[in-house]
Amino acid sequence: MPEWLFPLLSIVGAIAGAFIGVKIGLARQEEKHVALATRFTEHVTSVNERLKILGDRSHTHADRLTEHGMRLHEISERVARIERKVDER
Fold first, then answer.
1. pLDDT band at 48 (very low <50, low <70, confident <90, very high)
2. What's the gap between Cα 68 and its chain centre?
3. How far apart are the first and last CA of the chain?
4. What gap in Å lies between CA 25 and CA 42, rounded to an integer?
5. How many alpha carbons lie under 13 Å from residue 22 in its C-beta half-sphere?
C-alpha cells in the first residue's frame, strides 16, 4: 500500500467527521431555537390574556367608580338643597 493512503484517508475522515459534527450542531441549535420560540409565544399569549383580564377589571372598576361618583354628586346636591331649604325657614 502506498504511504500517502493512510494520511489521505485520515484527512478525508476528519473532514467528513467535522462536516457531520457541524450539521448535527446546527440541527441542535435549530431545535433549541424552535423550542425557545414556542416557549416565548406561549409566554406572550399568557401575558396578553392576563393583561386582558386586568384591563377588563380596570374598566369595570372605573365604571363603578364613575357610577358611585355620580351618585355621590347627586346626593350631595340633594343635601345642599335640603340645607338651603332648612336655612330659608
1. very high
2. 34
3. 131
4. 26
5. 6
